[in-house]
């Protein structure tokens, strides 16, 4: 498990492109036959990916967690962006199809990832935050997630939002998680933009063609900085930063948050004309 340390707006303003990428971009999460984990010092969120192929993969407990098992003091959100697979939690098997979600509560001692087909594996995106209480392990399929339509073709941001782990959905201590699909011809996400000082956010961009990219914008509203992001790469968004992007084609992204509350709508909007 690698680490990313929190830095302030003042430090970020002085970073060049390579330094920005080193601090905020996670380039490789889905490695065949491996569980990849990144420990961030933004609300102590762990971002990860599990890609089982011929063998099942247990969720490890890295030494620097100083825990007997990974979820001793944590909760976990899992969203499958690959093909069909299973997650086994303390002996109970949960089937996850493409873009289905599973929440695993604090105290679960064994989590095992497996793919139905080693050639076309599942790709489990993982978000984990510290937890203070136990909530039940719960699966939600995409069909059960009550999609919301937003945006318009005229502003190139027509999109469908699927909310899984949030105040009115799967219950958690502090984890909020869902995904957004942009319609063909739409390229902008989260516009108009916003910040939320009360919690950090992580974005995973996927379903992006190999020869296409997303230009992700971060930074304070009056000090925005761009990062080019490829398919299946993740961005860490500090609480003080905007988080919006424009793709060279349509795409899908997973948003996940940890911090002060579970209110999906808790955000401080930034007008387009105030961005610079």
From TrEMBL:
Cofactor(s) this protein cannot do without = Zn(2+)
Q: What class of enzyme is it?
A: isomerase
UniProt keyword annotations, A-Z: Isomerase, Metal-binding, Zinc
Which transformation does this protein catalyse, written as a reaction?
A: 5-dehydro-4-deoxy-D-glucuronate = 3-deoxy-D-glycero-2,5-hexodiulosonate
**Which GO terms fall under biological process for this protein?**
D-galacturonate catabolic process; D-glucuronate catabolic process; pectin catabolic process
By sequence similarity, the record places it as follows: Belongs to the KduI family.
Q: What is this protein called?
A: 4-deoxy-L-threo-5-hexosulose-uronate ketol-isomerase
What is the source species?
Hymenobacter wooponensis
Name of the encoding gene:
kduI
